[in-house]
Amino acid sequence: MDPQSGLPRCYRHPDTETGIRCTRCEKPICPQCMVSASVGFQCPDCVRNGSGTGHAPDANRPRTLAGGRVETDGRLVTKILIGINLALFIAVQVLGDRFTDQLVMIGYAYNPLLGEVVGVADGEWYRLLTSAFLHQEIPHFLFNMIGLWVIGGIVEPELGRIRYTLLCLLSGLSGSALVYLVDAPNQASLGASGIVYGLIGSWVVLARRRRYDMRPVFLFVALSLLLTFTRPGISWEAHIGGLVGGALVTFAMVHAPRERRELVQYGVCGLVLLIDLGIVLARTAALT
Length: 288
Fold this sequence. Notes:
CATH architecture of the largest domain: Up-down Bundle
Oligomer: single chain
Protein name: Rhomboid family protein
Largest sheet: 2 strands, antiparallel
CATH class of the largest domain: Mainly Alpha
Membrane topology: Multi-pass membrane protein
Pfam families: Rhomboid
Structural class: mainly alpha
CATH superfamily of the largest domain: Rhomboid-like
C-alpha cells in the first residue's frame, strides 16, 4: 500500500496504484490485469487456475458472451492463424508456382506444370481450406492479416478459443464453397478473405447483441462490400460466403439458450458444415 495515497498497488505491477481487488482472492489488480467476470473482476491467476475459493474450476471460471472460457490472452488463436498464413506466404515466395498450384482453390482443371487434372472435383477437397490461408502478393497478405488481427481481436474474446476457431474454419470453408459453386472450374482463387469477412459478419452480430451504435458498423460493412464489388480481381464469392457463414455461426453462438447452449451452438456449426458439403457435392456431380 502507498502510504501517501492510501491505495494498494497491483500485485503484478507494483508501480501501479489501484482500488480494485480480485473478487476471488482479493488481491489488488490494476486495469491491465482485470478480467471481467459475472460479478466484478478477477485476477489473471484466478482466471488461469479457475480456483481460489475451493470450488470446482469450471463452475466458477468467468465466461465469454458465447459461454466460452475467458483467457488471459484474448488473441491466441488469431496469432496462430496469422502464423499459419505467414508460414505459407514465405513458402509461396520460396517455392514458387508449383507449391501454390498444389494448394490454391481450383474446381477442376488440367495443370500443365503437374501434367495432370487437379481440383476439388478430382477429390482434392483439402483445397477448400488450404486456399483460405494462401497468399502470393504482399499487399493482399498484409491487408488480410491486418483485418484478421483487428477484427479477430474483437471477436475472439467474445466467443472463446474453441468457438472462435470453429467460426474461422467455417467462414473460410463457406467462402471456398461459394467460389467452387459459382466460379469457372479452372478459375484459381486464394486468400484469407473468406475468414476476414466471416469475422466482419460475426462483429455485426456481436455489436447488435451488445446493443452498440450500429451506424459505424454498417458503414464499415458497406465500404467493405463496395470494395468487394468495385475492385478488379476480387473474389466476391469468398467474401459473401464468409460473411454469411460467419454471421450465421455467431448468431447461434450468442443467442443460444443457456439450458442447451452447446447443443444449439455446435448443432448450427454442423448445419453450416452440411450446407457447405452439400454445395461441394452438388458442384462436383455437375462437373464430373
